[in-house]
Amino acid sequence: HVKATKPSGAAIFDDRLRSIALSELELTNAMREAVGRDQFELYYQPIVELHTNEVIAYEALLRWHLQGRMVSPAEFIGLAESTDLIVEIGEWVLDSACAQLARWRRQQSTLRIAVNVSGRQLRGGGLLDTVKAALERNDLPGSALWLELTETALIEDHLSAREVLRELVALGVTICIDDFGTGYSALGNFQKFPIEIVKIDKSFIDAIDRDAHKVVLTSAIEALSRALGLATVAEGVETTEQEAQVRAIGCRYAQGWYFGRPVPAAAVVGGLALATPEC
Ligand code: C2E
Ligand code: MG
Ligand code: MG
Ligand code: MG
User: Fold this and answer.
1) Cα 243 to Cα 182: distance, rounded to the nearest angstrom
2) Is 96 in the pocket of ligand 1 (CB under 6 A)?
3) For the CA atoms of the chain, what is the radius of gyration?
4) How far is ligand 1, taken at its centre, from the CA of residue 61, in Å?
5) pLDDT tens figures, 131-150
6) What is the pTM of this model?
7) Which of 116, 198, 259 to probe ligand 1 with, by most ligand atoms within 8 A of CB?
8) CA of 62 to the centre of ligand 4 (A)
C-alpha cells in the first residue's frame, strides 16, 4: 500500500510518474489547472456495517485524468502536499463529495460520505471554513461527513489540530484515523483527539486468513478501540475468509474489494438500492 505522507516532491515524481512525460514543474502547473479543467474525478467505495450488511457510507477517492491516463492519488497526493495545491484540491474534493452525497441522500437519507484530509489541510487553517461551506452549500448536516486523517497528520502540530478537530466535532462531523497501525503511534496517544473511528490498515487484513500473528494484532487493535469507545473499520477486505475473520474479531465496519471497488458516482446508483432494500 503506497502512502505519500512525508513527501519529497522529487522522489515521488521520479518513482511514480515516469509514464507521464512532464517535468516536475510542468506537472505542478498541470495540477494547478486540473480543477479548472475538470480533470479530477471522485470514485466512491462502499463502507459496510458488518452487523446489518448495509452500506452506511462511501469513501471518496480522488482520480486525475491526465494525458489520457488515470492517475491514482498515490502518484500525485505527495506532490500536491509539497506544493500546497492540496488545499485547493481538497476544497474541490470536499465540495464535490458533499454535492454527490446530497443527491444520494434523496434515496437513502442516512448515507454518509468519508473524505480524506491531509495534514497540510489541517495545518493550513482553512479546513473548518471549507467544511462548513461544503456542508452549507449542499444543505447537509455535519453528521453526514466523516473525515479521514492519518496518524502522521494528527501528530504533527497536535495542539492546533486538536482545536480544529474539536470544532469540526461540534458541527457533528466524525473524525477517523486512517491506515491505523502503519505509523509509530499507539491508540492511547489519540485520547486527546476527538476520534470516533479507527480504520485498521489493509496491511493487517491482507494476511489475516493465513497469519495467526495478524489475527492477534487486529484483535488487539479492535479490543483496545472498543475499550476506548471507538468503532473500527477493517480496510482492504478482499476475500470471503478475510471477511469472516474481521467479522469474528468484531470490527463494526469493513471496506474492500470483497464488498465493492471504488467506482465512479454513476456506477454507484444501482448499488444504493441493493444496499438498502428498506428504502
Ligand atoms: P486510503 O484513504 O487508505 O484509501 C484506501 C485505498 O486502498 C484506496 O486507494 C483504495 O482504492 C484502496 N483499496 C480499497 N480496498 C482495497 C482492497 O480490497 N484491495 C486493494 N488492493 N486496495 C484497496 P487509492 O484510491 O489509490 O487511494 C490511495 C490513498 O490516496 C488513500 O488511501 C488516501 O490516503 C489518498 N487519497 C485518496 N483520495 C484523496 C483525497 O481526496 N485527498 C487526500 N488528501 N488524499 C486522498
Ligand atoms: Mg481513507
Ligand atoms: Mg485508509
Ligand atoms: Mg490504507
Assistant:
1) 21
2) no
3) 18
4) 6
5) 999 999 999 999 999 999 99
6) 0.92
7) 116
8) 14
